[in-house]
From TrEMBL:
Pfam families: Methyltransf_23. Belongs to the methyltransferase superfamily. METL family. This is Methyltransferase domain-containing protein. The keyword Metal-binding does not apply. GO terms for molecular function: RNA methyltransferase activity; S-adenosylmethionine-dependent methyltransferase activity. Residues 1-19 have a biased composition (Low complexity). Residues 1-20 are annotated as: Disordered. Keywords: Methyltransferase, Transferase. CDD domains: AdoMet_MTases.
Length: 319
C-alpha cells in the first residue's frame, strides 16, 4: 500500500533558556526560543560539569533504552541497588506501572485530572477532517478525545480510546456518555500497546484508522516496548493514515530534573540518558526528533513532519 506518514511534535520546554517573564497567554506552538538555542545552552551547562559534578542526589534512575532495566540494578521500592536481573528488574517496574495507573484513575474518578487538550486541533489539522476514525492510544479519561469529537471538522467522526488501565477506560466511557456521545461516536477498550500488531487485530482496528494519537503516552511506556507501541499504531492505519505524536523532548524540565546526579552526554540531537525510572517506580522518557524517526521507520512509518515546541515557563508570582 501507500507509505504511511507519522507527524510528530516533541515538546522541549527548558528552564535553561531565558529569564523573561511571560506576560500573555500563549498557544502551545509558540516558539519562545529555538531548539538550537536550547541545545547550545544545554551543551554549555553540561560541558561545565552540570549536575553530575556537584554531587546532586539522583531524582530518577537511568534505564537501559533497549531492555528497560535500571542501570546498576533496581529496587522496586526505590530503596537502592538490588541484585535482580534485567528481566526481573523490568518485570518489577512493569508491575508497579500497572498498579499505579489503576490507583491513579480510581482516586481521580470524580475529578478532571487533565484539561481538555483543544490545542491538538491546531497542532494537527488532520484531526479537523469530517467522518474520520481516530484512535487514541493511552486515552486516559478522554482529555484528547473530547476536542476531536467537538472539533469543527468532527461531524460524523468517531474516536476509539485505548488504555492499559481498566479504571481509565471506564472513566472515559462514563464521561462521554454523560456528555451525550453515543457509542457510535466514542468507545473505549482496555489494551496494552506493548502487544504491537496483536492489539490492532484483537480490537478489530487493523488497517481502519485515519489517525492514531499518541499524546504524552509514549513517555510512560517501557523503553523496550516503544517499538511495539509504534507497530501497534502503524497496524491500525489505513494506507496514507497518520500517527500524530506529542511528548516530552530533550531539555524539557522533566528531563532536567531526571538528569540530576547523572553524567549526561550528547549523541546527535539527544542528551543521554533519555529514559529513567522515577522514585515512585514509573518510567519517564523523552524523545529526540531523530529517535522518533528511527522508531517510526522500524514500524514502517515515514516521518512527514517533526518539530520541537520550545516554550518558556515561568512562575506567575516570582517570574
Amino acid at each position: 500500500g501507500a507509505p504511511r506518514a507519522a507527524a510528530a511534535g516533541a515538546e522541549a520546554a527548558g528552564g535553561v533558556a531565558t529569564g523573561e517573564k511571560q506576560e500573555r497567554a500563549f498557544y502551545h506552538e509558540q516558539q519562545d526560543f529555538s531548539w538550537e538555542e536550547l541545545y547550545a545552552a544545554l551543551e554549555a551547562k553540561y560541558t561545565a560539569g552540570g549536575f553530575a559534578a556537584n554531587g546532586a542526589a539522583r531524582s530518577a534512575r537511568a534505564v537501559d533504552a533497549a531492555t528497560g532495566a535500571p542501570l546498576g540494578g533496581y529496587d522496586a521500592n526505590g530503596a537502592g541497588e538490588s541484585e535482580s536481573s534485567e528481566e526481573e528488574g523490568a518485570a518489577a517496574i512493569d508491575a508497579v506501572q500497572a498498579a499505579y495507573w489503576e490507583d491513579f484513575y480510581r482516586s481521580h474518578s470524580s475529578a478532571r485530572v487533565y484539561k481538555e487538550r483543544r490545542y491538538l486541533l491546531e497542532a494537527f489539522p488532520a484531526l479537523q477532517t469530517d467522518g474520520q476514525l481516530v484512535v487514541e492510544l493511552g486515552c486516559g479519561h478522554g482529555s484528547a478525545a473530547l476536542p476531536v469529537l467537538r472539533g469543527p471538522g468532527a461531524r460524523g467522526s468517531r474516536v476509539v480510546g485505548v488504555d492499559r488501565s481498566s479504571e481509565a477506560v471506564a472513566l472515559a466511557a462514563s464521561a462521554m456518555r454523560e456528555l451525550g456521545y453515543a457509542p457510535e461516536r466514542f468507545e473505549a477498550h482496555v489494551g496494552d500497546v506493548a502487544d504491537g500488531e496483536g492489539l490492532a487485530e484483537r480490537l478489530g482496528l487493523a488497517g481502519r484508522a485515519d489517525c492514531v494519537l499518541y499524546v504524552f503516552t509514549l513517555n510512560s511506556v517501557s523503553p523496550q516496548d516503544a517499538a511495539a507501541a509504534l507497530r501497534a499504531a502503524a497496524a491500525m492505519l489505513k494506507p496514507g493514515g497518520r500517527v500524530l505524536f506529542r511528548d516530552y523532548g530533550p531539555g524539557d524540565v522533566r528531563h532536567m530534573r531526571a538528569l540530576k546526579g547523572h553524567a549526561p552526554r550528547f549523541e546527535g540531537d539527544a542528551l543521554i540518558p533519555t529514559s529513567f525510572v522515577r522514585r515512585d517506580g514509573l518510567y519517564t522518557s523523552v524523545f529526540s526528533a531523530a529517535a522518533l524517526a528511527k522508531l517510526g521507520a522500524a514500524a514502517g512509518l515515514v516521518l512527514a513532519e517533526s518539530s520541537y515546541g520550545c516554550v518558556h515557563m515561568a512562575n506567575r508570582k516570582t517570574g
